[in-house]
Specification:
With 111 residues, the chain is mainly α. The protein has four helices and no strands.
Length: 111
């Protein structure tokens, strides 16, 4: 059985990327990080589903497809997490909330 969301197909990756960018734009414009948190949760559910399907599949070809899907899932999770931190920082500055720390300072200091 093929995965429900097959990230080995370029069209599926393109659709996921467009939806990711739209949610990122929505979160940035509204200054609400909850949109990115939901998106991150959805990608975590997708990777959980792909991991479960990987564990129950017995065909080597299907395991290869699931492994590539899981790799793409990890990339989207990383992008979603960094985007969440960015929009959360924007939301804290807009609401004049005192932030415990600068969430992205660890990331930008390494770049």
């Amino acid at each position: 059985m093929m995965p429900l969301i097959n990230f080995t197909e370029p069209f599926a990756i393109l659709v996921a990327l467009v939806l990711f960018v739209l949610v990122l734009f929505l979160g940035k414009e509204t200054k609400k990080s909850v949109f990115l948190a939901v998106e991150l949760g959805i990608f975590l559910l997708i990777i959980a589903g792909h991991s479960f399907e990987f564990s129950i599949s017995d065909a080597a070809e299907l395991q290869n497809i699931y492994a590539r899907c899981i790799t793409v899932d990890f990339v989207f999770i990383l992008l979603s997490f960094i985007s969440y931190l960015w929009v959360d920082d924007i939301e804290a500055k807009a609401g004049k909330k005192k932030s415990i720390d600068d969430s992205l300072s660890w990331f930008w200091s390494k770049v």
